[in-house]
Design a protein that fits this description.
mainly alpha, single chain, about 80% helix
Amino acid sequence: MKTLVSQIRTAARKRRAYLRTVSELRQLPLETQLDLDLYAGDIRRIAHRAVYGA
């Protein structure tokens, strides 16, 4: 039971990190997004890779 609770907490932490990353990337000015070669349609994929790995 302890491992289940631990897994749920880990999943919740990762989800919060994912949502925070998406939010921060979307808030970047357009010029910065372009400098970083970020396309708005790729932000969720990039955030997912950053938090959960490839």
